[in-house]
């Protein structure tokens, strides 16, 4: 401040006395004011810088949080995708086992196939914690049982895929359609109503023959359905037997994989839990197989106890053409 006053005094000699007097009386007060302004400005600038740094820190923390959340979401999606792939693998295994059983492949080949599928499935979530692994394995077992039940019930209630059954059913439908046509003609008021008329007699005879053929066709259809059920029950038993013999081996393989990967595993507790699941699911499967056996027996009894039909169909026309009166 003094230097500033000295500079002004040199440039304005006529005001030198006044300037020196002002410096002596007001210099300290003006200097203090200037220092206060400078300190305030510095504090303001420092505050702005600190505020900007805090905002940047919060933005960085928010970004880190969102990035970690996205990583967790991605990891969850990957686990969910792995589980979906596991479900597809299980369904493929069930189909493969059913195909193998229908083709009379040996029991050891079925067990080998099951072991390979289960081992590849186990690697998909072998690194999970014990509790997560148990949850996934129980979901796998439940899905296996549900898939088997769906397949079996589909074969029970949608037997049209069986060519023999479908052929017999088509024949039965044609017989009933022809019979309905003849009955409609007999009830037609324009037809001759005299029961002694040859046309009426031929139609009535044809209806009786079609009734007898209908009963025989139903017997054949029941027999074909019973055979279809027997094959299906054999497949289901083969699948269950293979699974029962294979599951302990699979459990050991899963534990070995987890050990190789360095996953901490309570082997005794895990093995006990998996075997409890196996026993529970085996009991459910046995109940389903019992239902299958009951169906096979009911069809066998239906075909055995069916009353005989007297004589083959004879007379009449073989197609649904309106006769000339």
Automatic annotation (TrEMBL):
Regions crossing the membrane: 33-51
Top-rank taxon: Bacteria
Alphabetized UniProt keyword annotations: Membrane, Transmembrane, Transmembrane helix
Region annotated Disordered, chain positions: 299-325
Ranges of compositional bias, category Polar residues: 315-325
Name of this protein: Uncharacterized protein
Organism of derivation: Neoroseomonas soli
Classification lineage: Bacteria, Pseudomonadati, Pseudomonadota, Alphaproteobacteria, Acetobacterales
């Amino acid at each position: 401040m003094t230097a500033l006053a000295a500079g002004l005094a040199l440039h304005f000699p006529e005001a030198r006395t006044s300037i020196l007097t002002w410096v002596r009386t007001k210099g300290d007060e003006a200097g203090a004011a200037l220092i206060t302004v400078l300190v305030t400005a510095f504090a303001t600038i420092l505050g702005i810088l600190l505020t900007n740094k805090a905002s940047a820190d919060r933005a960085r923390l928010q970004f880190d949080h969102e990035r970690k959340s996205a990583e967790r979401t991605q990891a969850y999606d990957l686990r969910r995708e792995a589980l979906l792939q596991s479900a597809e693998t299980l369904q493929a295994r069930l189909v493969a086992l059913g195909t193998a059983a229908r083709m009379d492949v040996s029991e050891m080949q079925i067990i080998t196939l099951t072991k390979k599928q289960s081992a590849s499935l186990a690697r998909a979530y072998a690194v999970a914690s014990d509790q997560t692994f148990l949850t996934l394995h129980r979901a796998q077992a439940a899905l296996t049982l549900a898939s088997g039940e769906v397949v079996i019930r589909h074969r029970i209630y949608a037997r049209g895929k069986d060519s023999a059954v479908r052929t017999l059913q088509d024949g039965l439908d044609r017989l009933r359609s022809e019979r309905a046509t003849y009955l409609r003609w007999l009830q037609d008021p324009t037809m001759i109503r005299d029961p002694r008329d040859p046309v009426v007699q031929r139609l009535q005879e044809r209806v009786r023959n079609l009734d007898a053929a209908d009963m025989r066709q139903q017997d054949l259809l029941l027999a074909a359905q019973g055979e279809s059920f027997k094959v299906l029950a054999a497949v289901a038993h083969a699948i269950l037997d293979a699974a029962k013999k294979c599951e302990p081996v699979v459990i050991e393989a899963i534990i070995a994989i987890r050990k190789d990967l360095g996953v901490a595993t309570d082997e005794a507790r895990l093995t006990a839990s998996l075997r409890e699941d196996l026993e529970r699911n085996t009991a459910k499967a046995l109940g389903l197989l019992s239902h299958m056996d009951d169906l096979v027996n009911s069809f066998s009894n239906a075909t055995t106890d069916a009353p005989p039909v007297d004589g083959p169909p004879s007379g009449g026309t073989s197609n649904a053409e309106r006769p000339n009166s």
